Amino acid sequence: MSLDDFEAVLHPAFMAGLEGDAAAYRRFLDLIGGRLRGFLRGHLARAGLASAEEAEDVLQETLLALHLSRHTYDPAVPVSAWAHAIARYKLIDHLRRSGRHRGHLPIEDEALSQAAPGSAASDARLDVARALAALPERTRTLIDRVKLQGGSLAEAAQATGMTENAAKVALHRGLKAMAKVLSRRGTRTP
After folding, report:
1. Whole-angstrom distance, CA of residue 93 vs CA of residue 156
2. Which pTM was predicted?
3. Residue among 139, 152, 140, 143 at smallest CA distance from 42
4. Which of 53, 112, 124, 185 is deepest in the core (most CB within 10 A)?
5. What is the CA radius of gyration of the chain?
6. What are the pLDDT digits (tens) for 53-97?
């Protein structure tokens, strides 16, 4: 399922869940849980931790954090981006608690994921999510798979039906477009 298709199913389920629809909220948790499970397993494996139980522990912490912070969700941001930010925070927290954090996640992600809601870093995280949402679907998928989930360019290219060279160019252009959007936002006055 493409990132756009996933978001098209996830967002309405989450919003209905916020309005009190228990079945929709359960669907949201099932959908995002499946997506985050792979994200967490991949990062834990790269950190030398291939235990499925450990990934499930971090996933459960993440789902609880999503539930407890659901009131902080900004509808202008893709639900999946918001959920991934919280998952990164929980993953970093888990690795630190276990004494095994050795810089396996990009520093930018680490700094942004620790930001308190309403802080400059939290606002920056939302700006990044918005800039990502403005990109074409295939470019978002490439950035999601390579930069957010830490997958290989070859795998991301295959998943999007592109050659590796075309994916590399699209990824570069997507990051450049995001940087342009973010730099414009940085020069605006409130």
Report:
1. 27
2. 0.54
3. 152
4. 112
5. 16
6. 888 999 999 999 888 888 888 888 889 888 988 898 888 888 877
